[in-house]
Amino acid sequence: MAEKTKQKGKKTTNMYARGIERREKILSVAAQMIEEKDIRAISLKDIAGRTGVSVGAAYHFYANATDVFVALAEQFMKSLRETIAAPYEGAATESWQALVATAWGRGVEIYMECPAYQKLLLSGQTPPEIKQADRDNDKIIGRSFIDIISRHFHFQEFPNCESVFFNAMEIADLMLCLSVHRDGHISQDMVEEAKIAAIAYLRHYLPESLPLK
Asked: Which of 43, 63, 83 corresponds to the end of one domain?
């Protein structure tokens, strides 16, 4: 009896592992296809065919291609939040402006590592479900910026503080969207424009200098 239970447990673990592997493969292939094709022209059947997973198995994990894209966007957003929240040191902590610029730069680097993310979240092909998820994520990122600044400086939050930082994230994102629309990718000059725009907006609410902790 104990041996059968052990074998059953092992089988369940193997099935779970295979399921994770299939999901990751589907997401990886979807990212490749996004780089190559119009997002709106990609179906779950197309993704399954490229992945080598049966259509039935693909439907077991995702209801349609949009579900795959949402999962891919969530993967990106999680990575973005973790990267921005990681510790800062050195020149990045000399002023709140440098801290914001460095944190923003970290986020852009993740976009640069996978062009599919640029197309998925910043282009005119972005599905509505992902646009809303991205807005919600920007609220979390905005809160992270407040926490990062508070970690290094004596900073007193003010009324509508979270809304202000959310707006700053949206302003910076707009610059990236314009870049993808104009150039087909995020250009370095628009990365700098995004930093300038976000920091200029925040300067209206934050003093030019904050005392270090």
From this structure: 63
Helices (H), 63-95: 65-85
The distance of Cα 102 from the centroid of its chain, to the nearest Å, equals 16
At 1 the pLDDT is 56
Q: How large is the average pLDDT for residues 127-140?
A: 92
pLDDT band (50, 70, 90) for residue 45: very high
Q: What is the CATH number of the domain that holds 44?
A: 1.10.10.60
Pair (55, 129) in one structural domain: no
Nearest to 142 by CA among 85, 211, 74: 85
pTM listed for this prediction: 0.85
- The pLDDT confidence band at residue 11, using thresholds 50, 70 and 90, is very low
Is 212 within a domain?
Answer: no
Residue range(s) defining the domain that contains residue 112: 66-207
- Rounded to an integer, the average pLDDT of 18-41 is 90
Q: What residues does 153 pair with on adjacent strands?
A: 212
Q: pLDDT: is 2 or 36 the higher one?
A: 36
* Single-letter code of the amino acid located at 45: K
Q: How many CB atoms lie within 10 A of CB 120?
A: 24
CB 135, CB 112: distance < 8 Å: no
Listed in sequence order, the residues at least 6 apart from 5 whose beta carbon sits closer than 8 Å to its beta carbon are none
Q: Cβ contacts of residue 198 below 8 Å, gap of 6+?
A: 100, 104, 168, 169, 171, 172
- Structure token digits, residue 60: 């077991």
